[in-house]
Amino acid sequence: MQVTRRQLLQAGLLATAGLVIPALGRTADNSKENLLLSSVTDKDDKNWWVLSDSQGNILAQHLLPGRGHGSARHPSGKSAVIVGRRPATFMSVVEVSPQGEYKFTDLTSATGRHFFGHAVYSVDGKFIYTTENDFDNGRGVIVVRDISNDYKVIAEWESGGIGPHELRMMPDGHTLVIANGGILTRPDQPREKLNLDTMKPNLAYLDTRTGEMLSKHELPDHQLSIRHIDVADTGRVWIGCQYEGMALDPMPLVYHHDLNQGGLQAAEASMDTWRALKHYTGSVVADNQQGIIGISSPRGDRVTFWDNQSGKHLQDIKLRDVCGLIPSPNGKQFVATTGKGDIAIIDAQTLAVTSESRTPELHWDNHLQVLA
After folding, report:
1. Which long-range contacts (CB under 8 A, 24 or more apart) does 189-194 make?
2. What is the per-residue pLDDT for 331?
3. Is the pLDDT of residue 31 over 60?
4. Could you read off the pLDDT of 145-173 as tens digits, one per residue?
5. Is 271 helix (H, G, I), strand (E, B) or coil?
6. In 3D, which of 279, 291, 174 has the Cα closest to residue 227?
7. What are phi and psi of 232, to 5 degrees?
8. In terms of Cα–Cα distance, which of 355, 357, 323 is closest to 339?
């Protein structure tokens, strides 16, 4: 399916006639405009891939076969993917030509596999890596696809645990870091967690040159599910957890790790901060320009900010049902989206909301990408 810019204009899907998108790009009259890539659910419960401006005006859209989750941008900026939410079997790719033509391709996981909602590209842009469930054998796998060969699967590696969720590329360009959530699931019981008493999450490092597992690291409490991660340009991995136990007392949900420098370290915060997160974190993102880590908590209705160097909690911003979070390309802002249709722009130095808009007919999904 190819959609030209003229067709989008005629359909009313491009809200700004002056928009030029040569490579999932920028507005002609405002190079600092944030273009947001995410999935949304509309008022009719339909799920869409959308490209919007920071006021929520839809610039392009594509109907998805189910609810989307995480997105990833190709290093060239000329394509991107959105991966379906567990236990989805689809991944939707959008490519943009220099003429502004959009080509959408919906890919399907192999038989006996489903996606866990996240993907990352290789540094050279030749391959894409996805976290998937080999559900018949109860194991997590990293699946490698060759982009130049119609995304054909060319390799499959053990993820190092059960329920791999988010994965990132380390600064060396060949090591993947993987959040193995530890929770056993099956597609015939889509949202059931089948092993909470015996779950064993870990953070794993894998060499993409060989598929070799380099190391695995566990947390003290086996019911702290490692779900979302990001890597600062210093190489420090930041980890957001979801607690699956019954404890009433608050516990640390944010950790960081430096490869080859010991175990996972809990970030420093007050008990009130941990209590406010309600055992749940969402997006984890690093603003390398400011040295600040942003971590959302939709259950806690807040975005928390952390200092990358010291590992200490800085402050919070309250936003109802917030989960999508990403720093702007220039590092001067964070952009946050909510399930209530809000888009908030946060100054990365003052950590204060500078503007907020709402599109109540759209429910923004869990994760967000900025294209500029």
Report:
1. 190/86, 190/87, 193/244
2. 92
3. no
4. 999 999 999 999 999 999 999 999 999 99
5. helix
6. 279
7. -75, 160
8. 323
For residue range 105-126, what is the model confidence (pLDDT) as tens digits? 899 999 999 999 999 999 999 9
Which amino acid is present at 296?
Answer: S
Q: Let me know: does 91 contact 81? Beta carbons within 8 Å.
A: yes
CB atoms within 10 A of CB 9: 14
Mean pLDDT of 327-339: 94
Share of the chain above pLDDT 90, in %: 76
Give me the residue label for tokens 């002609």: 28
The answer to whether the CB of 143 falls within 8 A of the CB of 178 is: no
Count the neighbouring beta carbons within 10 Å of the beta carbon of residue 364: 27
Neighbouring C-alpha atoms within 13 Å toward the C-beta of 232: 23
Q: Is 5 helix (H, G, I), strand (E, B) or coil?
A: helix
Q: How far apart are CA 59 and CA 244, in angstroms?
A: 39
Place of tokens 């609810």: 67
Only one residue has tokens 């509309």, namely: 42
Whole-number Å distance between alpha carbons of 187 and 179:
20
Q: Is the predicted pLDDT of residue 20 greater than 70, yes or no? A: no
Q: Which amino acid is at 125?
A: G
> What burial letters (b/e) apply to 315-341, b meaning 16+ CB within 10 Å?
ebbebebbbbbbbbeebebbbbbbbeb
For 35, residues 6+ apart whose C-beta sits below 8 A from its C-beta are 21, 24, 25, 26, 27, 51, 52, 53, 54, 59, 370, 371, 372
pTM for the predicted model, two decimal places: 0.90
pLDDT, one tens digit per residue, over 284-303 is 999 999 999 999 999 999 99
- The domains located in the chain, with CATH, are 2-371 (2.130.10.10)
Candidates 95, 98, 99; CA nearest to 79 is 95
What's the whole-number mean pLDDT along residues 43-61?
90
